[in-house]
Specification:
mainly alpha, single chain
């Protein structure tokens, strides 16, 4: 008795597009906000992290098979925790923005990079348990970009301050470390949004069922 291919109501590309939407919202909010303070930056990051975490936790239950659940669960927990930590207005500060976003970026970046790298190695060996190679490459790229975010924020001095004058406007402005940091996060969100949107809309081959679910084991080697 043959079994027809099973399709899920939700696939990996749904997860990628959902993440792209929330990253895009974060990028737009920062880009068009004249205020790049720690309060605004943490508010946007908190919403982005919470939404991303919820998407990954839901995906762990609805999208990924057992052997591929752990990256989604870990990423979901890390993102929800970071989002909740940044969601309390009374504790928002410049130091908290740097500490929280850098810690999240390192954790999330390592989770996606390691899981994607393991999946790529499995794909090269011809194993399907950890997912297709295209999905693994997407995880590695997003993971590396997230690690770059952490390193970039580490290079920004928290107490940096530079006064500059725009002659045409006749005004003096101050560029601070938090303004740079919030802008860097906005740039990161824009890159992730574009990349995941492209990945989500890219055509992909149907995923075959695991070997144990495709055909029952036979011992006579004959064909029907």
């Amino acid at each position: 008795m043959s079994t027809s291919p099973q399709t899920r109501a939700f696939e990996v590309w749904h997860v990628q597009l959902a993440r792209a939407i929330f990253a895009g919202i974060a990028a737009v909010m920062i880009t068009f906000s004249p205020d790049h303070s720690a309060e605004v930056g943490l508010a946007v990051f908190s919403g982005f992290a919470l939404a991303t975490g919820i998407v990954m936790l839901v995906a762990a239950g609805l999208v990924y098979p057992v052997r591929r659940k752990w990256p989604a669960v870990l990423l979901g927990i890390a993102s929800v925790a970071a989002g909740m930590a940044g969601g309390l207005p009374p504790v928002r500060s410049t130091i908290l923005f740097f500490v929280l976003v850098i810690a999240w970026a390192f954790a999330a970046g390592l989770i996606e990079t390691i899981s994607g790298w393991r999946a790529l190695r499995a794909a090269k060996r011809g194993e399907l348990a950890l997912g297709p190679a295209s999905e693994a490459r997407d995880a590695v790229v997003v993971g590396v970009v997230t690690l770059v975010l952490a390193v970039a924020l580490l290079l920004v001095p928290v107490g940096f301050s530079l006064d500059y004058t725009v002659a045409e406007a006749g005004q003096t402005y101050t560029l601070t470390g938090i303004i740079l940091a919030v802008g860097i996060f906005g740039g990161y969100a824009a890159i992730v949004a574009v990349y995941l949107a492209i990945a989500g809309f890219s055509p992909r081959k149907p995923q075959p069922l695991p070997a144990s679910a495709e055909t029952p084991a036979t011992h006579d080697g004959g064909s029907a």
